[in-house]
Write a structure and sequence with these properties.
The protein is mainly alpha-helical and 135 residues long. The chain has a domain of 87 residues. Helix content is 47%, strand content 0%. The protein has 5 helices and no strands. Helix 1 runs parallel beside helix 3 and helix 2 packs across helix 3. 11% of the residues are buried.
C-alpha cells in the first residue's frame, strides 16, 4: 500500500476512499460513530477490509453497536481483528442442517411419539418374552 493510501478524501471528509463503502454501510444501519482513526489504524482497517470484506465488517459492527453504545470506530478494530477471512469467490455456502443441530434425528411425524418409560416397558417385555421362549 502506498503511504498516501490512508489520506483523507478531502479536508472536509476525513474518511479515506477505501473505507467509504464500510462507513456508508454502517451509517446506513443507523450506527453513528466517530472515524477519528490514526494513520496506523487506517492501515490496519485497510488490511482488514482486504481480508474479511466490507459486508462482514459492517455486519459485525452493527451487531456490536446493538449490544452497547459505541462512540468511536476504534472500538471495532479489536473485534474486527478476530474475524475470519472472507470466503473465496465462487465458494458455495454449506447446506443448512435439517434441524437445530446436525446431530438431531428427525422423527417420523406419522408415528406416535412414545416416552422413555413406554419404550423401556416394550424392551423389558421383549426381553422377558425372549427368556420365556428359551425355557
Amino acid at each position: 500500500m502506498s503511504e498516501g493510501a490512508y489520506a483523507p478524501a478531502s479536508l472536509t471528509d476525513p474518511i479515506p476512499p477505501f473505507a467509504r463503502p464500510l462507513v456508508d454501510k454502517i451509517t446506513a444501519a443507523d450506527v453513528f460513530v466517530g472515524w477519528d482513526l490514526t494513520a496506523g489504524e487506517w492501515l490496519r482497517l485497510d488490511a482488514m477490509l482486504k481480508r474479511s470484506g466490507v459486508d462482514m465488517l459492517a455486519r459485525h459492527a452493527v451487531t456490536l453497536a446493538g449490544r452497547q453504545t459505541v462512540s468511536s470506530a476504534r472500538y471495532f478494530l479489536r473485534a474486527w481483528t478476530s474475524l475470519p477471512p472472507a470466503p473465496t469467490a465462487g465458494t458455495v455456502p454449506a447446506a443448512p442442517t435439517a434441524g437445530p443441530s446436525a446431530d438431531v434425528i428427525r422423527l417420523d411425524p406419522s408415528q406416535p411419539r412414545r416416552g422413555r418409560v413406554a419404550q423401556s416397558t416394550d424392551h423389558l417385555a421383549a426381553a422377558l418374552a425372549a427368556m420365556e421362549a428359551q425355557q
